[in-house]
Write a structure and sequence with these properties.
There is one protein chain. With 73 residues, the protein is mostly helical. It has a domain of 48 residues. It has two helices and no strands. α1 runs antiparallel to α2.
Length: 73
């Protein structure tokens, strides 16, 4: 990455990434619920992926708005 960006552009990129992580989180958690009865292993995998995207989203939330988000989930 060789582009130099100002703080406004950096914030826009972080917000875009945060939004994408939130969409992925919801997609994988929904998929986990859909698979729960028919494919328990697939459901656990999807749930883990959902939690991974949740962690990314929460980290980006903290960058954008420090201290405004609960830390317990």
């Amino acid at each position: 990455m060789t582009d130099v960006v100002d703080s406004d552009e950096l914030l826009r990129r972080i917000q875009r990434a945060r939004s994408w992580a939130g969409q992925e989180e919801r997609t994988w958690k929904k998929r986990s619920e859909e698979l729960r009865t028919g494919d328990p292993d697939g459901s656990r995998d999807a749930e883990l992926r959902g939690h991974t995207y949740e962690a990314v989203r929460r980290a980006l939330d903290e960058i954008v708005a420090p201290g405004r988000h609960d830390t317990d989930g």
